[in-house]
Design goal:
single chain; alpha+beta; 4 domains; seven-stranded antiparallel beta sheet; 22 strands; twelve-stranded antiparallel β-barrel
């Protein structure tokens, strides 16, 4: 009898064509296919899975039929006699382990493979802690204009560079910002999860010297960490259509956390957009963040070092040159000399990371300067002031209600993200992005569409003694000009910005094309001064002079001082005076963020 049982056990996977009645009855009785965890494993939301790769499903109806996919998966486990890495259990460990937990009797009916490769990878990862990483927004990088989040798998929290990163990203080499934005908005790319060394992930950020990094260790038990890792192993083989505003890097990390915790609610909150800072707040509201760690950008470290010697041109020039003539800094104090050498080391590293110098030249200079710096011994530096954490800034969507002194009422709404009138706390000063910003007026019982900004980006990148970035802006949409007629427009231009995060000014030139029946052209000179005296108050004065070619170079001048005061993180009051030629307006606005 025992031998017969063993033979039956061995051959059951080969010949099972339908589910045993005991399994079918239990599945129906407990309605396992409606389990929330089964839905999370399939990334199932609003009646269908968000995984678009047909290879992810065993049932032809699996994308939209939970029962069909569960039964097909169990059938696959029963029929699978493979003992290698291509077996169902090895390639689909997340769903397989969950099914075996719900149906423990199934373990006696299937062949359990060794999964050597998966076991080896688990050993290498040795996951003991999961940390949510937010690299702050970098407006010159289309893929990271709102920031970027990924997970870090830590085996030892004291050596993060030896850890591994879990990333979700669009699969593309596209570096044209407009093409990327268009394809990303409409699901033109495939998104995939990946696991790679954390050090390699950091190197991918050619712009990392501009970006602060925030680390949030998550409150996960070892069992929950293991559950997340198995799900990553399964899901990384398949793609989902990537949507820049919704099904993006930040949103898809939430699925991993939900599967780990076996409770939902995180993804449910995001139906039309998922901005990194908003998903971060959702994780915080769920009580999953242990603490906040801040790693300032290399740019901030460089400017901190340069600040002590900014009034010594020879020291700055020494650090920026490539000859490193020590005679230029011999007359300096020990501390100043150390700052000049440290600044030289930082700039050397940036040049090498940007491929401005070859590796041999880099190493020769690096070793020489480092040796000279080491001879000066340890010198204490003032700590870099911690920036306002991104999660403490305003939410990324906004509705504005405005009362005008003329009796007119207006309202505008935008999907995302941060404009020049918003408080800067938690955001990058001088970096403004508006997506789908629409304004309407109400007067004399009549509604009038005033403006639609499909996309409006302004990058007022601050120049300093070390970095000399160009400021730029681009905008596309429709608004009322030329005797209050609604025109489509495309605007782009550039200039400079000077100052610091607290107070800065900018000057730009922006050519504009307008279209209604025919193309019209203009050129604008723009000046602005922004002052952020505290985290809750913002002052500004904006001015513009626009010359219209089709109107015999008619020039229209606009001046616009304003003040914004944050009442709460979700609301602010805004007072603005606007003068366009001889017309004057006073506006009182209420900002509501969500």
């Amino acid at each position: 009898f025992k031998l017969l049982f063993v033979l039956l056990l061995f051959f059951t996977p080969l010949f099972a064509q339908t589910l045993p009645n005991t399994l079918s009855d239990k599945i129906e009785k407990q309605q396992l296919y409606n389990s929330k965890q089964w839905q999370r494993i399939l990334h199932f939301k609003e009646g269908k899975s968000e995984i678009d790769d047909p290879k992810f499903f065993f049932s032809t109806e699996g994308k939209s039929n939970l029962k069909s996919e569960l039964k097909a998966t169990i059938q696959k486990l029963l029929n699978d006699s493979s003992d290698d890495e291509n077996s169902t259990l090895c390639r689909y460990p997340s769903r397989s382990m969950w099914i075996l937990e719900q149906l423990p009797e199934l373990k006696k009916m299937i062949k359990i493979p060794q999964c050597h490769a998966m076991q080896q990878e688990l050993k290498v990862l040795n996951a003991k802690q999961i940390t949510l990483i937010l690299a702050s927004a970098h407006i010159n990088s289309p893929a990271s204009a709102f920031g970027h989040t990924f997970l870090r798998i830590d085996s030892d929290t004291t050596t993060p560079l030896l850890s591994y990163a879990v990333n979700y990203a669009a699969q593309t080499d596209e570096d044209n910002g407009f093409v990327y934005a268009y394809q990303g908005l409409f699901g033109g790319y495939k998104g995939r999860y990946s696991i790679e060394p954390y050090s390699k992930k950091l190197k991918e950020y050619s712009d990392l010297e501009q970006r602060d990094v925030w680390e949030y260790p998550l409150k996960l038990s070892q069992e929950e960490i293991d559950r997340m890792i198995l799900h990553i192993f399964e899901i990384r083989h398949f793609y989902a259509d990537y949507f820049f505003l919704e099904e993006n890097c930040s949103y898809n990390l939430l699925w991993l956390i939900e599967v780990a915790k076996q409770n939902g609610g995180l993804t449910d909150k995001f139906n039309f957009k998922a901005i990194p800072i908003d998903t971060l707040r959702a994780v915080e509201r769920a009580g999953l963040i242990q603490k906040t760690l801040y790693r300032p950008s290399k740019r901030k470290k460089i400017l901190q070092t340069a600040k002590a010697i900014e009034d010594i041109p020879k020291a700055i020039n020494f650090a920026k040159s490539l000859d490193y003539n020590s005679s230029h800094i011999e007359h300096l104090s020990k501390a100043q000399k150390a700052d000049a050498l440290e600044l030289a080391i930082h700039l050397l590293q940036i040049r090498h990371s940007h491929n401005e110098i070859d590796k041999k030249t880099y190493l020769n200079h690096f070793i020489r300067v480092l040796k000279e710096r080491s001879q000066l011994g340890k010198i204490e530096h003032a700590p870099i002031k911690r920036a306002t954490p991104p999660k403490e800034g305003h939410p990324s969507s906004k509705i504005t209600f405005t009362a005008h002194n003329s009796g007119k009422l207006s309202a505008r709404a935008k999907i995302a993200y941060h404009d020049i009138y918003d408080n800067e706390a938690g955001y990058i000063s001088g970096a403004y992005i508006n997506f789908f910003d629409t304004a309407i007026d109400y007067k004399n019982n009549k509604l009038t569409l005033q403006e639609i900004n499909i996309l409006d980006i302004r990058s007022y990148a601050l120049q300093d003694a070390i970095f000399k970035p160009i400021s730029w802006q681009v905008s596309v949409g429709g608004k009322r000009v030329f005797n209050n007629e609604f025109n489509a427009y495309l605007q782009a231009g550039g200039g400079i910005a000077l100052g610091n995060d607290k107070i800065f000014g900018y000057a730009t030139l922006t050519p504009t094309l307008y279209y209604k029946e025919s193309i019209k052209q203009s050129l604008s000179a723009n000046l602005g001064l922004i002052y952020n005296p505290s985290s809750g108050v913002k002052f500004g004065i904006l001015s513009k002079k626009e010359w219209f070619k089709e109107k015999e170079y008619l020039a229209i001048e606009t001046i616009e001082p304003f003040i914004t005061y944050n009442v709460t993180k979700e609301s602010a009051i805004h007072l603005r005076y606007k003068k366009i030629e001889e017309k004057e307006q006073m506006m009182f606005s209420w900002f509501l963020y969500f």
